[in-house]
Amino acid sequence: INVVRALVTTSLRTGAPAPARVATDLGVAGGHAAAVGLAELLDRGGRSARMPALQAAQRIALRSTPLANALREVVRTGEPDERIAAVAALGTVGDGRDVQLVLALAASERGSARTVCFDALRAITGADLPPSAARWHRHCKTARQRAALLLPGVLDRMEAMPDERDTAPDLRRIVRSAWAAPELIHEAIGAWLHSPNRRLREAALVLVADLRLADFAQRVQRTARHVAGGKLVEAASRAQTVLGTADRSLADSARTR
């Protein structure tokens, strides 16, 4: 992260077109450090860097709080073309907290720009509804209510489950509904990564990878240093690969198992 931040700072001091080139390079490189760098470029890089940074954010497709917040600000205050590009990126970076923002923009747009808004909602929620703001509002409201009722029980069941039980069905339920209750899922993952229970640590790593949660990159790295054997190594290796922090020795260990 420090290397990327130094690169961004140098490009900003140099001025255009350096920030735009750095944004493009970060989109190609990917990973959680790139997400942090793109957030800084969106905040500080000016208009010349904004569109390349927005396109790069959509390309890396990692859920990073700094990046999501930067995209939300562009949706609120950016130029028309930037707002649409930011919404497209939120489709891969955002979650249920972005639904109302996207719906509000959709109400003011027509044609292809409006299509981008509904495509972003489909990407966030996994639902395939027609481009009707009323239907999307009802669907998302119902999904959030259902997630608030059901997910706590699923998480409790995961924590109480015997080691020999298959966790895959419950993990799939969590992944499907995580967009509707992101704070709850983040809290559970944070606790499980530090759990003495290997099965819960493995579940947390699986969720980080499946949900592309870049905010957990450093905690995943710390967890990966202390894993040994079997599925836990595989889960740690996959999570680090998704987040762009892969340790080659860990990946090699996972492949030999």
Share in β-strands: under 5%
How many alpha or pi helices?
15
The portion of residues assigned to helices is over 70%
Globular, elongated, flat, extended or rod-shaped: what is the shape?
flat
**How many beta-strand runs?**
0
Global Rg? 19 Å
Outline the biggest β-sheet: none
Q: What is the residue-averaged pLDDT?
A: 92
Distance between the termini: 31 Å
Query: Which regions have little confidence, pLDDT < 50, spanning 5+ residues?
Result: 248-257
Sequence of secondary-structure elements: HHHHHHHHHHHHHHH
Oligomer: single chain
Instruction: Name the structural class.
Output: mainly alpha
Explain what the structure shows:
The chain has 257 residues and is an all-alpha fold. Helix content is 77%, strand content 0%. It contains 15 helices and no strands. Helix 3 packs parallel to helix 5 (65-77) and helix 6 (80-93) packs parallel to helix 8. The longest helix is centred in the middle third of the chain and has 28 residues, at 133-160. The chain is flat. Residues 248-257 have low confidence and may be disordered.
What tags apply to this protein structure?
single chain, 257 residues, mainly alpha, flat, disordered C terminus
Topology:
Layout: H1 2-14, H2 18-29, H3 32-44, H4 47-60, H5 65-77, H6 80-93, H7 99-108, H8 111-125, H9 133-160, H10 168-177, H11 182-193, H12 198-211, H13 217-224, H14 230-243, H15 248-255
Helix pairs in contact: 1-3, 2-3, 2-4, 3-4, 3-5, 4-6, 5-6, 6-8, 7-8, 7-9, 9-10, 11-12, 12-14, 13-14, 14-15
In a nutshell, what does this entry contain?
This protein has 15 helices and no strands. By secondary structure, the chain is mainly α.
